[in-house]
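Input sequence (287 aa), recorded before submission:
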Amino acid sequence: MKDLTVFVLTHNRGTLLLDTLDSVLNQTCNDFKFIVSDNSTNDETKNLLKKFNYIEKIEYRKRDKDYSSLAHFNLCISEVDTTYFILFHDDDIMMPDYIENMYHEITKGYAAVGCNAYILNDNKATKKKFFPYKKDKIIFYEELPIQYIKCQIAPLPTYIYNKSLLQGLLFTKECGKYNDVLWLLNIAKKNNLFWISKPLIYYRIHKGQDSHNYDYENQEKLIKKYEEILGAENYYIKKSYLELQYQRCLMIYRSSKKIHNEDLKILFKKSKYLFIKLLLKIIIRRV
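Predicted structure, token format:
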């Protein structure tokens, strides 16, 4: 029996969940603890699992109330009684050798291991990868913010963790919807991360995801966290603040149909690209 717990965390996605469960059950190795943590507000998931006989194949835990995503993650972490664990999303798909490869790497002493992923647009599989690296690599603490700013990252559901090296670390509320990034930054501060360049899951993109929505205030908080690591004069920090300024202009325009002259001057002076991009969005009314 592998010293591993695999959680699939689900919330009102019964039909998508079944594909996810099949991908876990069809792994090349099956000697791990497998738990479905049902945080749904209704019994759809439970009824589907019973109807298609999944209840007999998994350990099912129906939560006693509707937890926030953050609290649900932390609840599952608190229940881990193995050295290694996975927190998998209910809309993504594991490739058959995902667990075999991830477990092999995490036992080498990393605090966490992530892998590349192919994009799944709704139900359409693609060969588009999340990050471009062709070789496996160690990711250092100072490098992780840059990778996030460049949007070349291992997505959160790909990760496997070593609980003994996390030293009681849990998700915090500091950066709102971006707390998954802060979680990984805090892990990397304790110990290096490792990324597998081979895509081992399909990461699903669909309309029901909160990741499509831009949260200005919490994005600013996250950039300040990056700044603490990289310094205010870092190229990527300056770039991030300009992007934030651009998003602020869009936010104001959506609500008032106006843009402050000072905001336009800043963009024009510091980024002609973002200045033109903003004007084009307004002209063709894509805001």
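Checked by second reader. The first strand starts at residue 4 and ends at 10.
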